[in-house]
Amino acid sequence: MTYITRNFILGIFAVFLVTFLPVYVFAQTSASRAPRVYFENTVSEASIGSKITVRVFVDSEKPINVLELKVSYSGVVEPISFNEGNSIIEIWQSKELKNTPGVVVLSGGMSRAFAGTKGEIGTITFKTTKEGVAKFAITEANLYYADGKGTRATNVVLGTKSVTIREVIQNLLQPVENVTESVAPLDTESPIFGITDTLQNEADRTRIAIFQVTDNGSGIESITMRSMKWFTWNEWSTVSNPAKLPPRIWRYQISAQDNSGNTATHNAYVGIEILKLLGIAILSFTFLIAIIYFIIRR
Q1: What is the rounded distance in angstroms from the CA atom of residue 222 to the CA atom of residue 277?
Q2: Higher-confidence residue: 214 or 79?
């Protein structure tokens, strides 16, 4: 009886291993699948002087809410614009196209975490400048999970892409495709400001402005800011998100311009500085009244 029971238990255990172990292994492998950042475009060849649009996507099974990317490109192309109209990124910190030759830097965050496939980060448009092979590569990708801890994703798969650039040859049986941006409706809509707030940086006690601005047409080209300390504005300057505010200002404006030239401006006020300014005005007015009163009494 003991022998039969032992064999029965061993048989059940063997059936369990054969049936459920592959499922368990697959589940573990699937759960640990690393995120992927990659390119998508529809051409492999282009002529000199044409434009190549390269879309950047991310896949992640676990929700992410912050990302930082570096995109490298070879010297036969140059970036001319970036369109984030369909991007999953809502608050941009950096969209550097031309600050560092050969590198595009993109970084930002999401109020709603993203999980899934083909999450569009944005579309970079390049102009071809000479013959050669245009090589595009994600050289650095820092993705952070929305787990409340800011855990950085590891083993992120980085994509590459290449496009052959050459002269257009007349009467060629199979001419090289002259790639241009797809014809889109004329963008007449201005950028739209969303979340905007003034916070205090606890590290150095300075104030920063955080903002959300989107443009679903041609995409944001530049963001500038100016501020008012007393009663005059300072000069406009290019800023990123978040933007450090000068000390003791009571008002500032943020202006966003898209790639079609449409602009939008957002006005904001620093409440505590307004109170200080109002207090100074009240004291000054009271002092002036007191002086006038004493002069009259004399």
Answers
A1: 32
A2: 79
